[in-house]
Amino acid sequence: MATEQRPFHLVVFGASGFTGQFVTEEVAREQVDPERSSRLPWAVAGRSREKLQRVLEKAALKLGRPTLSSEVGIIICDIANPASLDEMAKQATVVLNCVGPYRFYGEPVIKACIENGASCIDISGEPQFLELMQLKYHEKAADKGVYIIGSSGFDSIPADLGVIYTRNKMNGTLTAVESFLTIHSGPEGLSIHDGTWKSAIYGFGDQSNLRKLRNVSNLKPVPLIGPKLKRRKCKIFIGLSCRWPISYCRELKGYSIPFMGSDVSVVRRTQRYLYENLEESPVQYAAYVTVGGITSVIKLMFAGLFFLFFVRFGIGRQLLIKFPWFFSFGYFSKQGPTQKQIDAASFTLTFFGQGYSQGTGTDKNKPNIKICTQVKGPEAGYVATPIAMVQAAMTLLSDASHLPKAGGVFTPGAAFSKTKLIDRLNKHGIEFSVISSSEV
Predict the structure, then answer these.
(1) Cα separation of 386 and 388, whole Å?
(2) How far apart are alpha carbons 390 and 22 in whole angstroms?
(3) How far apart, in whole angstroms, are the C-alpha atoms of residue 265 and residue 262?
(4) Are strands 92-97 and 8-13 parallel, antiparallel or unpaired?
(5) What is the mean pLDDT of the chain?
(6) Alpha carbon distance 395, 403 (integer Å)
(7) What is the bridge-based pairing of β-strands 431-439 and 369-378?
(8) Can you tell me the distance from the alpha carbon of 425 to that of 375, in angstroms, rounded to the nearest whole number?
(9) Residue with the larger pLDDT of the pair 250 and 424
C-alpha cells in the first residue's frame, strides 16, 4: 500500500481504552522488530492528550523504551466530531480502531477512513455491525481502493484463518469443520473487561434487527458440499438438548456449547466470498466452546438463564451492564483482568474437519478423509487480539500484491487468504499446526 504521502503508517484510535493500551504496546514492539527492514511511523489517537501520553509512558516503562513517547505521534479526535476523524484518517495509511461497542461508535470511523483514503481494521465481535458495514460500504470502499477489515482480533482471526489453514492442509476437498475453543487459566482464574460484556448484551438484545438485516441482504444460498453438518446434541441431558444446546465432545472429553461470538458469521461470509470470487469449494462450519465437567455445565445453565431473561428488557439490560461481575458469575468486571491473570491465560482452538480425497465424488459418497488442526496462543483478549490486529495491519502494509485486487469491506479470511498472515502469526506466538490427518 502507498504510504509515502501519509505521515503515519499506523494510527491506533482509542489507544487510551482498555484494549487500546495493549494494542499500543504491540505496535511499539512491532516498531523495533529485528526483522523489520523499514521505518514504521505511527501515532495514537483519542480525546485526551493527557491520557494518550500516560499510555505511551506506561508502554515505555513496560517495554524498557524510555524514548518511546517522543517517537510516537499524538492525534486528538473524537467520535462525536466528524471533522476530527477526517483529520485523523488523512494522516494514516491504516487506522486500528479500538473504540467499541462498534454498533455505537464504529461507523463514523469507517466513513471517515473511506472518504479520506485510509484503510481501517477493527476487532469487533458484533455480527450485526460487521454485516451492516459490508452491506453499506463495500462498494464505496472499493471505489476508493481502501480495505475495511473487521473482526481482526481473537474474534475472528484464529477461527477464520484456522478454517483456511485446515483446508490448505487437507489432501483433498474439505467440506465441513467444527471448532472447539478451550480457554486455559492460571490459579487466579479468568477475568474479562466489561466492554466485551456490553457488546454481548446489546447484540443479544437486538437479535431481531440482525434477522431483518439478513433478510434485506437477500443473499443466494451457498452450495452444500457433502453431508449437511448437523448441530451436536447431548445424549446425557435427555429432554434438555433442544432448550439447552449442550453436547459432549468425545474427542476432547468434555462438554461444550455453541460459541456465541462472531466466528460463525465471519467464517460463513469468508466462505461465500471465496466461492463467489475465487471459485473455491465452500466449507460448512460450526463453532463450540468447551465448558468442562458437570459442575461447570450447571453453573453455566444458571448464568444463561439470568442473562437470557434480563437481556430481553431495557431495565434488565441496564442491570446487566451495571453489575457485570454478579450476573456473569465473576467472569466479567469493570476492572478487567490483572496482569497475573493475563500472563497465566492461553487458548486452544481445535478444528475437526472432514472431506473427500482427490478424485472422490462428493455427490453420493460419504466423506473419506478426516483432519484435526489447532491454533494455540496466549491470553485471548489482550495479548492474542493485539497480535492478530497488528499483524493484520502489517500484512496490509507489506503484502498488498496478495490482497483482493480492489478495495472493499472484507472478513479477515477474504482479505488475507492468499497472504503470509498465518506465517506472521506463527512467528508472533499464535501457532497453527496439524494434529492428525487420515483417510477413513
Answers:
(1) 5
(2) 11
(3) 5
(4) parallel
(5) 92
(6) 9
(7) antiparallel
(8) 10
(9) 424
Question: Could you read off the pLDDT of 88-147 as tens digits, one per residue?
Answer: 999 999 999 999 999 999 999 999 999 999 999 999 999 999 999 999 999 999 999 999
Query: What is residue 200's predicted lDDT score, i.e. its pLDDT?
Result: 87
147 three-class SS: strand
Q: How far apart are CA 150 and CA 148, in angstroms?
A: 7
Residue 31 CB neighbours (<10 A)? 19
241, pLDDT greater than 60: no
One-character DSSP codes across 379-437: -IIIIIHHHHHHHHHHHHHH-GGGS-SS-EEE-HHHHHTTSSHHHHHHHTT-EEEEEEE
Cβ-count burial 179-190 (b if 16+ within 10 Å, e if not)? bbbbbeeeeeeb
d(CA 72, CA 411): 29
Whole-number Å distance between alpha carbons of 155 and 288 = 13
pLDDT number for residue 248: 86
Backbone angles phi, psi at 354, to 5 degrees: -140, 155
Mean pLDDT (whole number) for 297-322? 86
Q: What is the 3-state secondary structure (H, E, C) of 103-116?
A: HHHHHHHHHHHHHC
Which element (helix H / strand E) includes 333?
A: strand 332-333
Give the integer Cα–Cα distance in Å for 264 and 214: 14
Say how far residue 96 (Cα) sits from the centre of its chain.
Answer: 13
Mean pLDDT of 346-365: 91
Q: How far apart are CA 52 and CA 74, in angstroms?
A: 7
pLDDT for 13-60, tens place per residue?
999 999 999 999 999 999 999 888 789 999 999 999 999 999 999 999
- Which stretch, 197-201, 228-232, 386-390, has highest mean pLDDT? 386-390
Cis ω for the linkage preceding 101 (within 30 of 0): yes
Nearest to 269 by CA among 433, 133, 168: 133
pLDDT > 60? residue 237: no
